[in-house]
Hints:
Layout: H1 2-11, E1 18-22, H2 28-35, E2 40-45, H3 48-61, E3 66-69, H4 72-78, E4 83-88, H5 95-104, E5 109-120, E6 130-138, E7 141-148
Parallel strand pairs: 1-2, 1-4, 2-3, 4-5
Antiparallel strand pairs: 5-7, 6-7
Helix pairs in contact: 4-5
Amino acid sequence: MSSVRSALFNMVDVEGKSFLELFCGSCVVSCEALSRGADRVVCVDKSKRALKICKGNLETIGGSAKLICKDVVDYLKTATEKFDIIFLDPPYEDVEVIEKTLHLLPKVMKEESLAILEKSKRIDVDLSGFEIVKKKDYGETELVFLKVKE
């Protein structure tokens, strides 16, 4: 994963930007965003255990982020803040969860926002509400860079 993460941050400038990580797990991507100058970071995951690890990782780097323990779809339904960069690392082959999340994603995106979806190359998901800016393959993993269609 570290090579995918390095590649991601070599393609996306987060300095001075707001960053949302959905399905954050241990939030290593958010920690990397903070270390590269992200202005505000929010991490969402339904697992209390994952967020406990996340908190430890943030303390290790001396970073701070808002941690939200909530199902990602439920979070997106009620979210009011918009972000510059959104990173999604949903359950790899759960097309239903991925598509529900993508359907709600524009609520937290600004006109110029970029969303990066990490998913298995073996699955296809409906991206009809988005413009695909770029796709990059890393073994079984695919990063899909998305903007909201105008």
